[in-house]
Amino acid sequence: MHGLMQDWPLNCHRILDHAATYHSEREIVSRLVEGEIHRTDYRTVRERSLKLSQRLTAEGVRLGDRIATLGWNTMRHLECWYGIIGIGAVCHTVNPRLFAEQIVYIINHAEDRILFTDISFVPIVEKLMPQLPKLEKVIVLTDAAHLPDSEIDLVPYEEWLAEADGDFAWQSFDENCAAGMCYTSGTTGVPKGVVYSHRSNVLHAMTANQVDMLGLSSRDRMMPVVPMFHANCWSICYAAPMVGAALVMPGPKMDGASIYELLDTEKVTITAAVPTVWMMLLAHLEEHDLKLPHLQRVVIGGSACPRAMIEKFQKVYDVEVIHAWGMTETSPLGTLCTLKPEYASLAGEERLDILEKQGHPPFTVEMKITDDMDKRLAWDGKTFGRLKVRGPAVARAYFKGEGGTLLDEEGFFDTGDVAHVDRHGYMQITDRSKDVIKSGGEWISSIELENIAVGHPAVAEAAVIGVAHEKWGERPLLVVVAKRGESPAKQELLDFIAAKVAKWAVPDDVAFVEEIPHTATGKIQKMALRERFRSPEAAADA
Ligand code: ADP
Questions:
Q1: How far, in Å, CA of 261 to CA of 423, rounded?
Q2: For the segment 379-390, what is each residue's pLDDT rounded down to a tens digit?
Q3: Pocket of ligand 1 (CB under 6 A)
Q4: If one looks up domain 437-541 in CATH, what number appears?
Q5: Separation in Å, CA 108 to CA 114, 128, 268, 280, 523
Q6: Pick the catalytic residue: 44, 59, 276, 443?
Q7: Right CATH for 13-252 from 3.40.800.10, 3.40.50.12780, 3.40.50.10490, 3.90.226.10
Q8: What average pLDDT does range 8-16 have in this prediction?
Q9: All structural domains of the chain with their residue ranges
Q10: 127 C-alpha to center of ligand 1: Å?
Q11: What is the pTM of this model?
Protein backbone atom coordinates (compact mmCIF):
# COMPACT_ATOMS: atom_id res chain seq x y z
CA MET A 1 0.00 0.00 0.00
CA HIS A 2 1.35 3.43 -0.94
CA GLY A 3 0.90 6.63 0.98
CA LEU A 4 -1.48 9.15 -0.51
CA MET A 5 0.63 12.27 -0.33
CA GLN A 6 1.45 14.46 -3.32
CA ASP A 7 4.34 13.90 -5.64
CA TRP A 8 6.40 17.06 -5.09
CA PRO A 9 9.89 16.51 -6.49
CA LEU A 10 12.65 17.89 -4.30
CA ASN A 11 13.95 20.25 -7.00
CA CYS A 12 16.52 22.79 -5.83
CA HIS A 13 14.89 25.76 -7.59
CA ARG A 14 11.83 25.34 -5.37
CA ILE A 15 14.07 26.67 -2.62
CA LEU A 16 14.49 29.98 -4.43
CA ASP A 17 10.76 30.05 -5.23
CA HIS A 18 10.10 29.75 -1.53
CA ALA A 19 12.59 32.50 -0.63
CA ALA A 20 11.20 34.84 -3.29
CA THR A 21 7.60 34.24 -2.14
CA TYR A 22 7.92 34.32 1.63
CA HIS A 23 11.17 36.25 2.16
CA SER A 24 11.04 38.37 -0.97
CA GLU A 25 12.74 41.46 0.39
CA ARG A 26 15.45 39.76 2.37
CA GLU A 27 18.79 41.21 1.39
CA ILE A 28 21.57 39.70 -0.64
CA VAL A 29 24.61 41.91 -0.32
CA SER A 30 27.66 41.34 -2.52
CA ARG A 31 31.10 42.81 -2.76
CA LEU A 32 31.44 42.83 -6.52
CA VAL A 33 34.63 42.17 -8.39
CA GLU A 34 34.24 45.68 -9.86
CA GLY A 35 34.64 46.98 -6.30
CA GLU A 36 31.21 48.25 -5.26
CA ILE A 37 28.89 46.83 -2.59
CA HIS A 38 25.73 45.69 -4.37
CA ARG A 39 22.33 45.12 -2.76
CA THR A 40 19.47 43.03 -4.02
CA ASP A 41 16.84 40.64 -2.63
CA TYR A 42 15.50 37.12 -3.16
CA ARG A 43 12.65 38.29 -5.41
CA THR A 44 15.07 40.00 -7.78
CA VAL A 45 17.58 37.17 -7.73
CA ARG A 46 14.80 34.77 -8.67
CA GLU A 47 13.63 37.00 -11.52
CA ARG A 48 17.15 37.22 -12.88
CA SER A 49 17.79 33.49 -12.41
CA LEU A 50 14.65 32.77 -14.43
CA LYS A 51 15.94 35.03 -17.18
CA LEU A 52 19.21 33.15 -17.06
CA SER A 53 17.31 29.88 -17.53
CA GLN A 54 15.44 31.42 -20.43
CA ARG A 55 18.66 32.59 -22.09
CA LEU A 56 20.37 29.23 -21.58
CA THR A 57 17.37 27.51 -23.15
CA ALA A 58 17.67 29.86 -26.12
CA GLU A 59 21.33 28.87 -26.37
CA GLY A 60 20.22 25.26 -26.73
CA VAL A 61 21.12 24.08 -23.24
CA ARG A 62 19.10 21.03 -22.23
CA LEU A 63 18.53 18.70 -19.29
CA GLY A 64 21.81 17.17 -18.12
CA ASP A 65 24.13 19.60 -19.96
CA ARG A 66 27.05 20.79 -17.88
CA ILE A 67 27.58 24.52 -17.45
CA ALA A 68 30.69 25.73 -15.64
CA THR A 69 31.24 28.67 -13.32
CA LEU A 70 34.55 30.19 -12.33
CA GLY A 71 33.39 32.80 -9.89
CA TRP A 72 33.60 34.44 -6.49
CA ASN A 73 30.69 34.55 -4.09
CA THR A 74 28.36 37.21 -5.47
CA MET A 75 24.67 37.50 -6.34
CA ARG A 76 25.53 36.93 -10.01
CA HIS A 77 27.13 33.60 -9.18
CA LEU A 78 24.02 32.71 -7.17
CA GLU A 79 21.84 33.57 -10.19
CA CYS A 80 24.00 31.22 -12.27
CA TRP A 81 23.49 28.39 -9.80
CA TYR A 82 19.71 28.64 -9.80
CA GLY A 83 19.39 29.59 -13.48
CA ILE A 84 21.43 26.57 -14.54
CA ILE A 85 19.76 24.01 -12.28
CA GLY A 86 16.25 25.40 -12.87
CA ILE A 87 16.22 23.84 -16.36
CA GLY A 88 17.89 20.62 -15.26
CA ALA A 89 21.34 21.58 -16.49
CA VAL A 90 24.23 20.83 -14.14
CA CYS A 91 26.08 23.64 -12.39
CA HIS A 92 29.75 22.74 -12.37
CA THR A 93 31.64 25.03 -9.99
CA VAL A 94 35.30 25.14 -10.99
CA ASN A 95 37.91 26.10 -8.41
CA PRO A 96 40.04 28.88 -9.94
CA ARG A 97 42.82 28.17 -7.46
CA LEU A 98 43.59 24.82 -9.06
CA PHE A 99 46.59 24.42 -11.32
CA ALA A 100 45.93 25.35 -14.96
CA GLU A 101 46.29 21.71 -16.09
CA GLN A 102 43.70 20.62 -13.52
CA ILE A 103 41.23 23.27 -14.71
CA VAL A 104 41.68 22.12 -18.29
CA TYR A 105 41.27 18.51 -17.22
CA ILE A 106 38.06 18.99 -15.29
CA ILE A 107 36.34 21.31 -17.80
CA ASN A 108 37.09 18.79 -20.55
CA HIS A 109 36.19 15.82 -18.38
CA ALA A 110 32.87 17.38 -17.43
CA GLU A 111 32.31 18.41 -21.08
CA ASP A 112 31.15 21.85 -20.03
CA ARG A 113 29.36 23.71 -22.84
CA ILE A 114 29.28 27.24 -21.45
CA LEU A 115 31.48 28.96 -18.88
CA PHE A 116 30.45 31.85 -16.64
CA THR A 117 33.51 33.60 -15.28
CA ASP A 118 34.37 36.63 -13.19
CA ILE A 119 36.60 39.33 -14.71
CA SER A 120 39.41 38.22 -12.39
CA PHE A 121 39.74 34.88 -14.16
CA VAL A 122 39.59 36.10 -17.76
CA PRO A 123 43.40 35.92 -18.13
CA ILE A 124 43.32 32.25 -17.04
CA VAL A 125 40.47 31.48 -19.44
CA GLU A 126 42.26 33.22 -22.34
CA LYS A 127 45.33 31.11 -21.71
CA LEU A 128 43.41 27.84 -21.43
CA MET A 129 40.87 28.41 -24.20
CA PRO A 130 42.87 26.64 -26.96
CA GLN A 131 42.82 23.49 -24.81
CA LEU A 132 39.05 23.60 -24.22
CA PRO A 133 37.60 22.46 -27.56
CA LYS A 134 34.11 21.66 -26.23
CA LEU A 135 33.50 25.04 -24.64
CA GLU A 136 31.10 26.98 -26.84
CA LYS A 137 30.78 30.29 -25.02
CA VAL A 138 32.40 32.36 -22.28
CA ILE A 139 30.10 34.73 -20.43
CA VAL A 140 31.76 37.27 -18.16
CA LEU A 141 29.89 38.16 -14.96
CA THR A 142 29.88 41.92 -15.55
CA ASP A 143 28.43 44.50 -17.93
CA ALA A 144 29.73 45.69 -21.30
CA ALA A 145 31.37 48.73 -19.73
CA HIS A 146 33.59 46.52 -17.55
CA LEU A 147 34.27 43.81 -20.11
CA PRO A 148 38.02 43.43 -20.58
CA ASP A 149 39.55 43.61 -24.07
CA SER A 150 40.39 40.15 -25.19
CA GLU A 151 41.49 38.10 -28.14
CA ILE A 152 38.81 35.51 -27.39
CA ASP A 153 35.06 36.09 -27.69
CA LEU A 154 33.68 37.29 -24.38
CA VAL A 155 29.98 37.90 -23.77
CA PRO A 156 28.98 40.48 -21.12
CA TYR A 157 26.56 38.85 -18.65
CA GLU A 158 24.28 41.82 -18.02
CA GLU A 159 23.58 42.49 -21.71
CA TRP A 160 23.23 38.78 -22.44
CA LEU A 161 20.73 38.45 -19.59
CA ALA A 162 18.80 41.54 -20.68
CA GLU A 163 17.86 39.80 -23.91
CA ALA A 164 15.41 37.63 -21.94
CA ASP A 165 11.94 39.01 -21.20
CA GLY A 166 11.50 36.81 -18.13
CA ASP A 167 8.36 35.16 -19.46
CA PHE A 168 9.56 31.71 -18.51
CA ALA A 169 8.84 29.00 -16.00
CA TRP A 170 11.16 26.55 -14.36
CA GLN A 171 10.62 22.93 -15.11
CA SER A 172 9.83 20.13 -12.74
CA PHE A 173 11.74 16.92 -13.22
CA ASP A 174 12.85 13.84 -11.39
CA GLU A 175 14.46 14.84 -8.12
CA ASN A 176 17.26 12.38 -8.79
CA CYS A 177 18.50 14.43 -11.77
CA ALA A 178 21.96 15.93 -11.38
CA ALA A 179 22.01 19.53 -10.13
CA GLY A 180 25.61 20.31 -9.30
CA MET A 181 29.09 19.07 -9.84
CA CYS A 182 32.27 19.69 -7.93
CA TYR A 183 35.64 18.04 -8.47
CA THR A 184 37.73 17.01 -5.51
CA SER A 185 40.90 19.04 -5.56
CA GLY A 186 42.95 16.04 -6.53
CA THR A 187 45.39 16.04 -3.64
CA THR A 188 45.42 12.29 -4.33
CA GLY A 189 45.47 11.39 -8.02
CA VAL A 190 43.44 13.12 -10.72
CA PRO A 191 40.48 15.28 -9.71
CA LYS A 192 37.26 13.31 -9.53
CA GLY A 193 33.78 14.65 -10.22
CA VAL A 194 31.25 14.51 -7.40
CA VAL A 195 27.72 14.86 -8.76
CA TYR A 196 24.97 16.19 -6.48
CA SER A 197 21.34 15.54 -7.29
CA HIS A 198 18.40 17.89 -6.69
CA ARG A 199 17.17 15.50 -4.03
CA SER A 200 20.53 15.24 -2.25
CA ASN A 201 20.96 19.02 -2.21
CA VAL A 202 17.47 19.68 -0.85
CA LEU A 203 17.72 16.99 1.81
CA HIS A 204 21.19 18.17 2.72
CA ALA A 205 20.07 21.79 3.09
CA MET A 206 17.16 20.71 5.31
CA THR A 207 19.64 18.74 7.37
CA ALA A 208 22.01 21.70 7.56
CA ASN A 209 19.21 23.89 8.88
CA GLN A 210 18.59 21.77 11.94
CA VAL A 211 19.20 23.70 15.14
CA ASP A 212 22.06 21.39 16.14
CA MET A 213 23.68 21.99 12.75
CA LEU A 214 23.95 25.44 11.10
CA GLY A 215 20.57 26.28 12.59
CA LEU A 216 19.89 29.19 10.20
CA SER A 217 16.73 31.28 10.48
CA SER A 218 15.13 34.23 8.69
CA ARG A 219 16.67 36.45 11.39
CA ASP A 220 20.18 35.46 10.43
CA ARG A 221 22.53 37.33 8.14
CA MET A 222 24.82 34.62 6.83
CA MET A 223 28.15 35.33 5.19
CA PRO A 224 29.59 32.31 3.37
CA VAL A 225 33.28 33.11 3.13
CA VAL A 226 33.73 29.53 2.00
CA PRO A 227 33.76 29.92 -1.78
CA MET A 228 30.86 28.66 -3.87
CA PHE A 229 33.43 26.55 -5.74
CA HIS A 230 34.48 24.73 -2.57
CA ALA A 231 32.46 21.64 -1.76
CA ASN A 232 28.97 22.86 -2.68
CA CYS A 233 29.56 26.01 -0.61
CA TRP A 234 28.89 23.90 2.47
CA SER A 235 25.23 23.91 1.41
CA ILE A 236 24.79 27.56 2.37
CA CYS A 237 23.46 28.73 -1.01
CA TYR A 238 20.57 26.31 -0.53
CA ALA A 239 20.21 26.39 3.26
CA ALA A 240 20.02 30.20 3.57
CA PRO A 241 17.23 30.84 1.01
CA MET A 242 15.39 27.78 2.34
CA VAL A 243 14.76 29.65 5.60
CA GLY A 244 14.97 33.18 4.21
CA ALA A 245 18.27 34.11 5.87
CA ALA A 246 19.96 37.16 4.36
CA LEU A 247 23.17 36.48 2.46
CA VAL A 248 26.32 38.58 2.55
CA MET A 249 28.64 37.58 -0.27
CA PRO A 250 32.28 38.62 0.18
CA GLY A 251 33.28 38.50 -3.51
CA PRO A 252 36.99 38.34 -4.22
CA LYS A 253 38.29 39.82 -0.97
CA MET A 254 38.98 37.39 1.86
CA ASP A 255 41.74 39.17 3.75
CA GLY A 256 41.20 40.02 7.42
CA ALA A 257 40.37 43.71 6.86
CA SER A 258 37.80 43.07 4.10
CA ILE A 259 36.09 40.26 6.00
CA TYR A 260 35.96 42.37 9.14
CA GLU A 261 34.47 45.28 7.23
CA LEU A 262 31.54 43.19 5.99
CA LEU A 263 31.02 41.44 9.34
CA ASP A 264 30.71 44.85 10.92
CA THR A 265 28.86 47.02 8.39
CA GLU A 266 26.49 44.24 7.30
CA LYS A 267 25.84 43.03 10.86
CA VAL A 268 26.56 39.42 9.93
CA THR A 269 25.26 36.98 12.57
CA ILE A 270 26.79 33.74 11.27
CA THR A 271 29.65 33.01 8.91
CA ALA A 272 31.63 30.00 7.67
CA ALA A 273 35.13 29.30 6.33
CA VAL A 274 38.33 27.30 6.70
CA PRO A 275 40.70 28.02 9.61
CA THR A 276 43.20 30.03 7.49
CA VAL A 277 40.56 32.70 6.85
CA TRP A 278 39.92 33.03 10.57
CA MET A 279 43.63 33.22 11.31
CA MET A 280 43.78 36.30 9.08
CA LEU A 281 40.69 37.80 10.68
CA LEU A 282 41.89 37.22 14.25
CA ALA A 283 45.29 38.77 13.41
CA HIS A 284 43.50 41.82 11.99
CA LEU A 285 41.23 42.16 15.03
CA GLU A 286 44.18 41.94 17.40
CA GLU A 287 46.30 44.38 15.47
CA HIS A 288 43.57 47.03 15.38
CA ASP A 289 41.94 46.27 18.70
CA LEU A 290 38.53 45.56 17.16
CA LYS A 291 35.47 43.65 18.41
CA LEU A 292 32.70 41.59 16.79
CA PRO A 293 29.49 42.85 18.39
CA HIS A 294 27.06 41.38 15.81
CA LEU A 295 28.58 38.01 15.07
CA GLN A 296 27.05 35.12 17.04
CA ARG A 297 28.40 31.97 15.40
CA VAL A 298 31.32 31.02 13.21
CA VAL A 299 31.40 27.69 11.41
CA ILE A 300 34.94 26.38 10.99
CA GLY A 301 35.80 23.34 8.91
CA GLY A 302 37.74 22.00 5.96
CA SER A 303 40.74 21.46 8.25
CA ALA A 304 40.92 20.86 11.96
CA CYS A 305 40.06 23.98 13.95
CA PRO A 306 42.80 24.64 16.51
CA ARG A 307 41.74 24.74 20.15
CA ALA A 308 43.35 28.16 20.54
CA MET A 309 41.07 29.52 17.80
CA ILE A 310 37.93 28.20 19.48
CA GLU A 311 39.06 29.69 22.76
CA LYS A 312 39.88 33.09 21.30
CA PHE A 313 36.58 33.45 19.45
CA GLN A 314 34.69 32.56 22.59
CA LYS A 315 36.65 34.28 25.31
CA VAL A 316 37.78 37.44 23.56
CA TYR A 317 34.99 38.02 21.05
CA ASP A 318 32.04 36.17 22.59
CA VAL A 319 31.42 34.26 19.36
CA GLU A 320 30.35 30.60 19.41
CA VAL A 321 32.51 28.31 17.28
CA ILE A 322 30.85 25.41 15.47
CA HIS A 323 33.53 23.00 14.36
CA ALA A 324 32.44 21.10 11.25
CA TRP A 325 33.75 18.13 9.34
CA GLY A 326 32.86 17.10 5.85
CA MET A 327 34.10 16.60 2.35
CA THR A 328 33.10 17.28 -1.23
CA GLU A 329 31.75 13.72 -1.39
CA THR A 330 29.43 14.29 1.59
CA SER A 331 27.70 17.40 0.15
CA PRO A 332 29.71 18.34 2.37
CA LEU A 333 28.43 18.59 5.97
CA GLY A 334 29.07 15.32 7.80
CA THR A 335 29.35 16.26 11.45
CA LEU A 336 29.05 19.49 13.42
CA CYS A 337 30.05 20.11 16.99
CA THR A 338 27.21 21.51 19.03
CA LEU A 339 26.74 20.52 22.66
CA LYS A 340 24.21 17.82 23.52
CA PRO A 341 22.79 17.79 27.06
CA GLU A 342 25.44 15.25 28.07
CA TYR A 343 28.08 17.92 27.60
CA ALA A 344 26.18 21.19 27.91
CA SER A 345 27.18 21.81 31.52
CA LEU A 346 30.91 21.36 30.96
CA ALA A 347 33.10 24.42 31.45
CA GLY A 348 36.68 25.49 30.89
CA GLU A 349 39.17 23.00 29.46
CA GLU A 350 36.68 20.11 29.56
CA ARG A 351 34.28 22.08 27.39
CA LEU A 352 37.08 22.87 24.95
CA ASP A 353 37.97 19.17 24.84
CA ILE A 354 34.55 18.54 23.34
CA LEU A 355 34.34 21.64 21.13
CA GLU A 356 37.65 20.68 19.57
CA LYS A 357 36.08 17.48 18.22
CA GLN A 358 34.53 17.48 14.75
CA GLY A 359 31.16 16.67 16.30
CA HIS A 360 28.17 14.44 15.77
CA PRO A 361 26.26 13.57 12.59
CA PRO A 362 22.71 14.76 11.91
CA PHE A 363 19.90 12.52 10.70
CA THR A 364 20.77 11.49 7.11
CA VAL A 365 24.41 10.81 7.95
CA GLU A 366 25.35 7.38 9.30
CA MET A 367 28.88 6.89 10.52
CA LYS A 368 31.13 4.01 11.53
CA ILE A 369 34.80 3.47 12.25
CA THR A 370 36.46 0.26 11.19
CA ASP A 371 39.81 -1.47 11.15
CA ASP A 372 41.49 -2.45 7.88
CA MET A 373 39.44 -5.66 7.77
CA ASP A 374 36.26 -3.58 7.87
CA LYS A 375 35.43 -4.71 11.42
CA ARG A 376 33.58 -2.06 13.40
CA LEU A 377 35.57 -0.53 16.26
CA ALA A 378 34.36 0.54 19.69
CA TRP A 379 33.03 4.05 20.31
CA ASP A 380 35.17 4.76 23.36
CA GLY A 381 36.68 8.10 22.31
CA LYS A 382 40.10 6.49 21.99
CA THR A 383 40.16 3.62 19.51
CA PHE A 384 40.69 5.06 16.07
CA GLY A 385 40.14 3.63 12.64
CA ARG A 386 38.86 4.39 9.15
CA LEU A 387 35.94 6.78 9.14
CA LYS A 388 33.10 5.68 6.85
CA VAL A 389 29.76 7.33 6.13
CA ARG A 390 26.47 6.53 4.44
CA GLY A 391 23.46 8.63 3.55
CA PRO A 392 21.30 10.23 0.83
CA ALA A 393 23.78 13.10 0.33
CA VAL A 394 26.93 10.94 0.28
CA ALA A 395 28.52 10.03 -3.06
CA ARG A 396 28.19 6.47 -4.33
CA ALA A 397 30.32 7.00 -7.46
CA TYR A 398 32.37 9.62 -9.24
CA PHE A 399 31.44 11.08 -12.63
CA LYS A 400 32.08 8.64 -15.47
CA GLY A 401 32.85 5.91 -12.95
CA GLU A 402 36.36 7.16 -12.17
CA GLY A 403 37.81 5.38 -9.17
CA GLY A 404 35.48 2.37 -9.53
CA THR A 405 33.27 1.24 -6.67
CA LEU A 406 33.40 3.57 -3.72
CA LEU A 407 31.26 1.72 -1.23
CA ASP A 408 31.95 -1.18 1.11
CA GLU A 409 29.61 -4.15 1.50
CA GLU A 410 27.30 -2.22 3.79
CA GLY A 411 27.15 0.71 1.39
CA PHE A 412 29.46 2.99 3.37
CA PHE A 413 31.89 5.42 1.73
CA ASP A 414 35.47 5.39 3.04
CA THR A 415 36.37 9.01 3.75
CA GLY A 416 40.11 8.47 3.87
CA ASP A 417 40.11 10.02 7.34
CA VAL A 418 41.16 8.37 10.57
CA ALA A 419 38.97 9.10 13.57
CA HIS A 420 37.65 7.97 16.92
CA VAL A 421 34.10 8.32 18.21
CA ASP A 422 32.98 8.65 21.82
CA ARG A 423 29.95 7.03 23.41
CA HIS A 424 27.74 10.04 22.70
CA GLY A 425 28.59 9.86 18.99
CA TYR A 426 31.12 12.71 18.90
CA MET A 427 33.68 12.05 16.20
CA GLN A 428 37.22 13.36 16.28
CA ILE A 429 39.54 13.22 13.28
CA THR A 430 43.06 12.24 14.22
CA ASP A 431 44.40 12.46 10.68
CA ARG A 432 43.93 11.88 7.00
CA SER A 433 45.01 8.28 6.55
CA LYS A 434 47.92 9.34 4.37
CA ASP A 435 49.13 11.95 6.89
CA VAL A 436 49.21 9.75 9.98
CA ILE A 437 52.76 9.40 11.29
CA LYS A 438 53.66 5.78 11.90
CA SER A 439 56.45 5.70 14.43
CA GLY A 440 57.47 2.26 15.64
CA GLY A 441 54.21 0.52 16.53
CA GLU A 442 52.47 3.81 17.38
CA TRP A 443 50.33 6.10 15.26
CA ILE A 444 50.95 9.77 15.95
CA SER A 445 48.23 12.28 15.11
CA SER A 446 49.65 15.19 13.13
CA ILE A 447 46.48 17.19 13.78
CA GLU A 448 46.83 16.88 17.55
CA LEU A 449 50.41 18.13 17.46
CA GLU A 450 49.53 21.00 15.10
CA ASN A 451 46.70 22.11 17.34
CA ILE A 452 48.95 22.16 20.38
CA ALA A 453 51.71 24.02 18.52
CA VAL A 454 49.43 26.86 17.37
CA GLY A 455 48.42 27.29 21.00
CA HIS A 456 51.93 28.65 21.66
CA PRO A 457 51.82 32.45 21.72
CA ALA A 458 54.72 32.86 19.26
CA VAL A 459 53.35 30.48 16.61
CA ALA A 460 51.23 31.73 13.71
CA GLU A 461 50.81 28.44 11.86
CA ALA A 462 52.12 24.90 12.29
CA ALA A 463 52.24 21.67 10.31
CA VAL A 464 53.48 18.28 11.41
CA ILE A 465 54.73 15.70 8.93
CA GLY A 466 56.40 12.31 9.14
CA VAL A 467 60.06 12.22 8.15
CA ALA A 468 61.77 8.91 7.31
CA HIS A 469 63.70 7.44 10.24
CA GLU A 470 65.99 4.40 10.20
CA LYS A 471 64.87 2.92 13.47
CA TRP A 472 61.28 4.09 13.86
CA GLY A 473 60.15 4.17 10.23
CA GLU A 474 58.88 7.73 10.62
CA ARG A 475 59.28 10.49 13.17
CA PRO A 476 57.29 13.73 13.44
CA LEU A 477 58.79 17.02 12.31
CA LEU A 478 57.16 20.27 13.40
CA VAL A 479 57.16 22.96 10.71
CA VAL A 480 56.42 26.42 12.09
CA VAL A 481 55.65 29.91 10.84
CA ALA A 482 56.43 32.27 13.72
CA LYS A 483 54.18 35.23 14.48
CA ARG A 484 55.46 38.53 13.13
CA GLY A 485 58.29 39.82 15.35
CA GLU A 486 58.62 36.54 17.29
CA SER A 487 61.46 34.02 17.13
CA PRO A 488 60.73 31.15 19.51
CA ALA A 489 63.54 28.68 20.32
CA LYS A 490 63.15 25.11 19.04
CA GLN A 491 63.47 23.61 22.51
CA GLU A 492 60.88 25.99 23.91
CA LEU A 493 58.32 24.72 21.37
CA LEU A 494 59.21 21.08 21.93
CA ASP A 495 58.90 21.52 25.71
CA PHE A 496 55.53 23.18 25.19
CA ILE A 497 54.32 20.11 23.27
CA ALA A 498 56.01 17.62 25.63
CA ALA A 499 53.88 18.96 28.47
CA LYS A 500 50.75 17.84 26.62
CA VAL A 501 51.46 14.53 24.81
CA ALA A 502 53.14 11.16 25.34
CA LYS A 503 56.92 11.27 25.08
CA TRP A 504 57.12 9.28 21.85
CA ALA A 505 54.75 11.70 20.11
CA VAL A 506 56.92 14.77 20.71
CA PRO A 507 58.46 15.85 17.36
CA ASP A 508 62.17 15.20 16.91
CA ASP A 509 62.85 18.60 15.45
CA VAL A 510 61.40 21.97 14.45
CA ALA A 511 61.85 23.65 11.06
CA PHE A 512 61.05 27.37 10.81
CA VAL A 513 59.65 28.53 7.48
CA GLU A 514 58.36 31.84 6.08
CA GLU A 515 55.19 30.28 4.79
CA ILE A 516 53.36 26.94 4.84
CA PRO A 517 51.96 25.96 1.41
CA HIS A 518 48.18 25.51 1.09
CA THR A 519 46.03 23.58 -1.36
CA ALA A 520 43.37 25.16 -3.53
CA THR A 521 40.86 24.58 -0.72
CA GLY A 522 43.00 26.07 2.04
CA LYS A 523 44.44 22.89 3.53
CA ILE A 524 48.08 22.48 4.47
CA GLN A 525 49.88 20.92 1.53
CA LYS A 526 51.54 18.08 3.37
CA MET A 527 52.79 16.48 0.18
CA ALA A 528 54.85 19.57 -0.68
CA LEU A 529 56.23 19.72 2.88
CA ARG A 530 57.12 16.03 2.85
CA GLU A 531 58.93 16.59 -0.44
CA ARG A 532 60.85 19.51 1.00
CA PHE A 533 61.77 17.85 4.30
CA ARG A 534 62.42 14.41 2.98
CA SER A 535 65.27 13.67 5.37
CA PRO A 536 66.19 14.69 8.92
CA GLU A 537 69.12 16.64 7.42
CA ALA A 538 66.82 18.76 5.27
CA ALA A 539 64.84 19.56 8.39
CA ALA A 540 67.93 20.43 10.39
CA ASP A 541 69.06 22.82 7.63
CA ALA A 542 65.80 24.74 7.63
P1 ADP B 1 39.60 18.71 -1.02
O2 ADP B 1 39.10 18.90 -2.39
O3 ADP B 1 40.54 19.74 -0.51
O4 ADP B 1 40.01 17.30 -0.66
P5 ADP B 1 37.36 18.49 0.75
O6 ADP B 1 36.69 19.64 1.38
O7 ADP B 1 36.53 17.50 0.07
O8 ADP B 1 38.34 19.15 -0.22
O9 ADP B 1 38.31 17.79 1.81
C10 ADP B 1 37.76 16.91 2.73
C11 ADP B 1 38.77 16.55 3.76
O12 ADP B 1 39.14 17.68 4.55
C13 ADP B 1 38.27 15.56 4.77
O14 ADP B 1 38.32 14.25 4.28
C15 ADP B 1 39.22 15.80 5.94
O16 ADP B 1 40.44 15.13 5.76
C17 ADP B 1 39.47 17.27 5.86
N18 ADP B 1 38.63 17.98 6.82
C19 ADP B 1 37.47 18.62 6.58
N20 ADP B 1 36.99 19.18 7.72
C21 ADP B 1 37.87 18.87 8.70
C22 ADP B 1 37.93 19.15 10.10
N23 ADP B 1 37.02 19.88 10.73
N24 ADP B 1 38.98 18.65 10.78
C25 ADP B 1 39.92 17.90 10.18
N26 ADP B 1 39.92 17.63 8.87
C27 ADP B 1 38.91 18.10 8.14
A1: 42
A2: 999 999 999 999
A3: 184-185, 187, 231, 301-304, 323-328, 332, 358, 415-417, 429, 432, 519, 521, 523
A4: 3.30.300.30
A5: 12, 11, 38, 35, 26
A6: 443
A7: 3.40.50.12780
A8: 98
A9: 13-252, 437-541
A10: 30
A11: 0.92
